[in-house]
Amino acid sequence: MENTTGTETSYPLFLQIYEFIRNRMERGEWKAHDKLPSIRGLAEELKVHRLTVFKAYRQLAEDGKVYVKDKSGYYVSQGGSPSLVAMDGADLTMAAALNSNRLSDIQRLPAQYQFSQALIDPGLLPNLFLSEYVKKVFDLYPKVMGTYSSVQGDEELRETLSLHFREHHRLQLSREELLITSGAQQAINLVADILLGPMDSILVERPTYSLAMDIFRRKGARLVPVTITPEGYDLAEVEDLMARHKPRLFYMNPTHHNPTGYTVPAWQRKLLVELAERYHCLLVEDDPFRDIYFAEPPPLPFFAYDTEGWVIYISSFSKYVAPGLRICAVACRYPLMERLITAKALADNGTSLLNQKIFLHYYTSPRLQQHLGKLRIALQVHKEIMEEELAGTGWEWTAPQGGLNLWVKLPEQLKVEALFRASLRESIVFVPGEICDALGEMKSWVRLSYSFVNEITLREGMRRLTALANQIE
Fold first, then answer.
1. Nearest partner of 115 among 322, 405, 375, 392, judged by Cα
2. Looking at 366, 398, 415, which one is the last position of a domain?
3. Which residues cross the membrane (predicted)?
4. Based on the structure, what is the number of domains in the chain?
5. Residue 94 to residues 172, 247, 251, 418, 428, Cα–Cα distance (Å)
6. What is the pLDDT of residues 377-430, one digit of tens each?
7. Residue by residue, what is the 3-state secondary structure of 38-79?
8. Which of 331, 350, 366 is the endpoint of a domain?
9. I need a labelling partner for 193 at 20 to 30 A (CA). Which of 238, 342, 373, 467 fits?
């Protein structure tokens, strides 16, 4: 297998460059009739042999995505840079959604039966209670609207969260090792900004969070998939991939995983931290669903086992505490923290101080902690309703012990693309599994989120969806 970068790849390097170029065209960075970089220039940028780039360009030309001008170079074809069609419900085809490879494009579709949003039904949140805390914050901090937060985040909030993490998750960290960001997506963006360059290899779970892959692809990273199962990872596979690819990082969502709901066991977490130290691969632990468990609390975060600074821990509260506040805490050691603070300063110079103060008093209140227990019960009921409606369909899934999603395999004869199109006409939206797969091959899978609609709408929507599936079959 061809390799000119010193690391083997899961598929030929020229095809990875092909995907890198195609993705940039699809994002509109290179438009119809734009001249592409020279073979020599792109080879130097990506640190590969010129022949590798030539093979990628030749394949793009054979596929009609680029054309050649004699003695001038390669140019984007008229149809080589597709864009999403207008967002008008049924007119959005599955192909358009997959070409964009962006979860947000699907989630923006208006739908009565919304199974693509891994968010909590606003009716399950203590909204009146939150409004009381908004008033309280203005009483406690009358000048809060007249000043910025520090770039790293409100000191009082960071101190409180560091104590919370120590008491509940056994994370030994100080407030100086926490950064407050505007949601987990910004945190992932900042990590990618400071760590990734074109054609850097990174490990990602297969499947994984689609928007994270979009961020990494925009940086030009090469995604190397690691299979996740109900039992966790194959550690021999992980070590082999680390040894061969020398990845910059391993992006993971190991607790009530998105989209599968799987949770990596504690014994693997300790060993994976040891592998990260051995192969100098940062573990980026995205942990938005930790508090959403149905029986026993999940294992400790990877960060609890880290003594040498090889884990970046992203703890988002946007899914279930107060989505509108967009509060996320990133934990890591110095000097990485210093680089993240610099990137945060360039991004927005600090998360809203008002939002941080509201969150501080709201999250630490006994009332909210009691509400979390009730929320877990409500979400478990939602999950069981979805499972009841899927019983007898022949669809397959592993019941998750927490989180907000079911990861479902459809029968081979039922095509996800056909079901997606038919569902849009019935105002039903879900996430095709293909966009959660770095290889784009999980064409029989779907992610169904049971958290965003109320129980009556959930049951009715699932009945409509399964009835549609029977009509298509």
1. 405
2. 366
3. none
4. 3
5. 46, 32, 27, 8, 13
6. 999 999 999 999 999 899 999 999 999 999 999 998 999 999 999 999 999 999
7. CHHHHHHHHCCCHHHHHHHHHHHHHCCCEEEECCCEEEECCC
8. 366
9. 238
Q: Which residue has the tokens 């409004």?
A: 131
Q: Could you tell me if 436 and 360 lie in one domain?
A: no
Q: Is 126 a residue whose pLDDT tops 80?
A: no
User: Mean per-residue pLDDT for 299-320?
Assistant: 92
Residue 472 contacts residue 419 (beta carbons within 8 Å): yes
182 closest CA partner among 320, 330, 303, 284 = 330
pLDDT digits (tens, 9 = 90+) for 216-229: 988 888 899 999 99
Residues 169 and 52 in one domain: no
Does residue 20 sit in the same domain as residue 164? no
Range of the domain at 256: 127-366
Q: Give the predicted TM-score (pTM) of the model.
A: 0.80
Q: Are 347 and 318 in contact (CB under 8 A)?
A: no
Beta bridge partners of 432: 446
CA proximity to 440, closest of 1, 22, 78 = 22
222 and 353 share a domain? Answer: yes
User: What are the start-end ranges of the H helices in 231-301?
Assistant: 235-245, 266-279
| In a domain? residue 443 | yes
Q: What is the pLDDT of residue 139?
A: 78
Q: Cβ(148)–Cβ(350) under 8 Å?
A: yes
* 455-472 helix and 416-425 helix, angle to the nearest 10 degrees: 130
Cβ–Cβ under 8 Å, residues 93 and 85? yes
Sequence-separated (6 or more) residues with CB below 8 Å from residue 170: 300, 304
Residues 126 and 97: their CA atoms lie apart, in Å, by: 34
Contact indicator for 331, 173 with CB cutoff of 8 Å: yes
